[in-house]
Amino acid sequence: METLTASQYSSVANLILFFSMFLVIYLVGYFVVFRNWSPKLQPEASSCFISLAHGSPAVFLASRAILSDPNRGFASANTEYQNLALDYSIAYFLMDLSHYLVFYPNDVLFIGHHLATLFVFLTCRYLVYHGGYAILVLLILAEVTSFCQNTWTLAGARRADLPIAAKVYDLLSPPFYAFYSVVRGVAGPLFMYQMTMFYLSGMADDVIPRWVWVSWVVVVVMAISVSILWISNLWVELYRERTGKDRKKVT
Questions:
Q1: In angstroms, rounded to a whole number, what is the distance separating the alpha carbons of residues 52 and 150?
Q2: Of 191, 189, 195, 193, whose CA–CA distance to 76 is shortest?
C-alpha cells in the first residue's frame, strides 16, 4: 500500500511539473516569441510552440520506454518509464486543451480530439496499468511528424505577409504531405490492424477489459480516418494550386 501511494504521489508530481513546464513555454511563446504577431495568430502560434516542445521529446521518451522493456507487448504491464512518457503527454494535452477552451471554445473537433486522446492515455496509465506499449507506439506515429507539421503551420500562418514564410510553406508542403501520408495512411493502419487482431483474440482480456480496448480502437480509428481525410484534402488543394500556377505561366 505504501508503494502504491508513493507511486501515485510521484505521478501527480510529474503531471504538475510537466504541465507547469508547458504552461511556461506557452506563455513565453505568447508574450515573447510571438509578441509582434497579430492577436488573432498569437494563440495558434503559441499552441504550435508547445506542440514543438512536446512532439520530438515525446517520440524520444516513448521510444526509449518501449525499447527498455524486454517484455513489451500489447498486453504487457506498464513500466515506470512508460508511465513517465504517458504523464508527459497527458500534461501536454491538458495544457493544449486549456488553450482551446480559452481561445477556441467552439472548436468542437480539436476539443473532442484532445478529450478522446486524454481518455486513452488516462485509462492506460491510471485504470488498467497495461497496454503502454501499444499506446506509446501510436503516440510515436502521431508525433513523429510534429516538427514538420508545426513548422508548416507557422509558415502558413504568415505566408500572406512574409515572403520567406511563403517560400518555407511552399517548399515544405510536398515532403511534409508525403511523410504524413506514409505515417498516418500506411504505418498507422498497419499497426492498428495488428493491435486490433491481438485484442480480438482475447489474450488481453484478463488485464485490459474489453470495453477499454474497444474504446481505444474506436478513438484511434476515428483519429486515423480524420487524419487521412485531412491530408487527402491538402493533396487536392496542392494539386489545384500547382496546376493553377502552371496554367498562368502558359497563358
A1: 7
A2: 195
Q: Three cell numbers at 9? A: 504521489
Cell of 165: 514564410
Task: Find out whether 28 and 53 touch, Cβ atoms under 8 Å.
Answer: no
Q: Produce one character per residue of 90-128: b if its CB has 16 or more CB atoms within 10 Å, e if not.
A: bbbbbbbbebbeeeeeeeeeebebbebbeebbebbbeeb
Backbone CA torsion sign across 214, 220, 226, 232: negative
Cell representation of residue 162: 512574409
Which three cell numbers, joined as nine digits, stand for 177? 504531405
| Grid cell locating 99 | 488553450
Q: Give pLDDT tens digits for 38-76.
A: 999 999 999 999 999 999 999 999 999 999 999 999 999
Which residue bears the cell 510521484?
Answer: 10
User: Which one-letter DSSP state was computed for residue 130?
Assistant: B
For residue 61, list its beta bridge partners: none
234: left (phi over 0), alpha (psi -120 to 50) or beta: alpha
**Residue 123 contacts residue 102 (beta carbons within 8 Å):** no
pTM score of the predicted model? 0.93
Coil, helix or strand at residue 206? coil
Q: Contact at 8 Å (CB) between 195 and 221?
A: no
